[in-house]
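Batch manifest, entry 17 of 40.
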Amino acid sequence: MLKKILTTTALLFSLSSFAAVDVNKASAAELDGIKGIGPSLSGKILKERNKGNYKDWPDLMHRVSGMGEKSSAKFSAQGLTVNGSGYQGGAASEPAKAKSTDKPKSTKS
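Output type: structure tokens
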């Protein structure tokens, strides 16, 4: 019986650690619970949110300095959402620069 209680408790704790945290509803403490978001970034998020809720990930990334594609993907993987949606990537990205492995051709005749 004790083994079942401990197993159930461990399961509940593991599930709660993956609970979604919506950026438009979260408190500073909830935002700080996302690995990589500290008091400075959560303060920026809350300050901008006071001006109006975030519409989507590109809106969040545009309004909050320090929120780029890499960090947004990382935070989303840890449960951060904007209006219930996880980060899909590339929504506010610059076009990728083509990498060429070819050496420039000589213009000599």
